[in-house]
């Protein structure tokens, strides 16, 4: 962090009690992307509402769950959502439509200092599928068309590893309706294999240290003995915490200062808000996601 920016954030943090800085903003709207069921997302994110109100001087913090990623993408593009933490492909989708719509201000950091994760392709442990070669001709489920790990990165990386186009290698492909539903679809036989995400660190039996598998294990929805990992992607940059550029600059600075300080001020809330497995927020920037922007432009087009 530059000395100037650190000084700015420190100054903002010290003046959070001055709601006049918020200009005419009375409500902050946080979008939830539908990667897991709505009630669980609301329950683990609601802890930021009161302290964020106090930090910015707004009258209310509201949460807007969407059944899919695109609902939040459109909300950020249209100015009806102010804050969201999403995958890099979702940010790329916004950037390619309007590069000035949002700022990717922060991202999550793991205990070892890394800021990346992986697509994890899984199959049922009793399916007979043991590696990537044995997925030929099977039904492949992707999480969501706007998911980085659940769609974009597999479409870029898988053809290199299987040696041919995805549509030629697999018997059928489709979308599972978010990461949680995708894994449940693998377990119930809707999909033979499916793409979700994880840190790739820690124990497989625990669903790794972070990611969708770990979330499902922690909620009692998943026994990792029921799954086998058949492929892992190259590393993907952790998704950004984005703020809408429709907000005044002073409000954006207050929001950044609040979230940057959250791991120290209330680690339990930070852990819940980020779905667990991370130690800190660190600064982010559009440059961090340029490879994902380029990949999305190539694979999806926007």
UniProtKB/TrEMBL annotation:
Residue intervals passing through the bilayer: none
One GO term describing the cellular component: ATP-binding cassette (ABC) transporter complex
Keyword tags: Signal
Cross-referenced Pfam families: Phosphonate-bd
GO BP term, example: organic phosphonate transport
Signal peptide: 1-22
Coiled coil: none
InterPro entries: PhnD (IPR005770), Phosphnate-bd (IPR017797)
PANTHER family: PHOSPHONATES-BINDING PERIPLASMIC PROTEIN
Family under the similarity heading: Belongs to the phosphate/phosphite/phosphonate binding protein family.
Name of the molecule in the record: Phosphonate ABC transporter substrate-binding protein
Organism: Devosia geojensis
């Amino acid at each position: 962090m530059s000395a100037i920016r650190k000084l700015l954030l420190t100054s903002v943090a010290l003046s959070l009690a001055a709601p006049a800085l918020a200009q005419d903003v009375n409500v902050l709207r946080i979008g939830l992307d539908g990667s897991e069921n709505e009630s669980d997302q609301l329950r683990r994110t609601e802890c930021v509402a009161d302290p964020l109100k106090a930090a910015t001087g707004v009258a209310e913090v509201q949460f807007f769950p969407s059944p899919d990623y695109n609902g939040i993408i459109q909300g950020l593009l249209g100015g009806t959502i102010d804050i969201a933490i999403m995958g890099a492909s979702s940010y790329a989708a916004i950037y390619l439509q309007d590069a000035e719509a949002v700022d990717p201000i922060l991202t999550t950091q793991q205990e070892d200092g890394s800021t990346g994760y992986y697509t994890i392709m899984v199959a049922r442990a009793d399916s007979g599928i043991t590696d990537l070669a044995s997925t030929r001709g099977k039904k492949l489920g992707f999480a969501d068309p706007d998911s980085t790990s659940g769609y974009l990165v597999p479409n870029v990386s898988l053809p290199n590893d299987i040696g041919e186009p995805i549509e030629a290698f697999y018997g059928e492909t489709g979308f599972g309706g978010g990461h949680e539903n995708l894994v449940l679809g693998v377990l119930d036989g809707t999909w033979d294999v499916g793409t979700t995400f994880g840190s790739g660190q820690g124990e497989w039996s625990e669903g790794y240290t972070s990611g969708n598998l770990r979330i499902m294990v922690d909620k009692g929805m998943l026994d990792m003995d029921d799954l086998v990992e058949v492929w892992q992607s190259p590393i993907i940059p952790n998704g950004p915490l984005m703020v809408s550029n429709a907000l005044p600059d002073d409000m954006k600075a207050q929001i950044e200062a609040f979230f940057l300080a959250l791991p120290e001020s209330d680690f339990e809330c930070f852990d819940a808000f980020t779905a667990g497995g991370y130690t800190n927020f660190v600064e982010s920037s559009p440059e961090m996601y340029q490879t994902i922007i380029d990949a999305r432009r190539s694979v999806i087009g926007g």
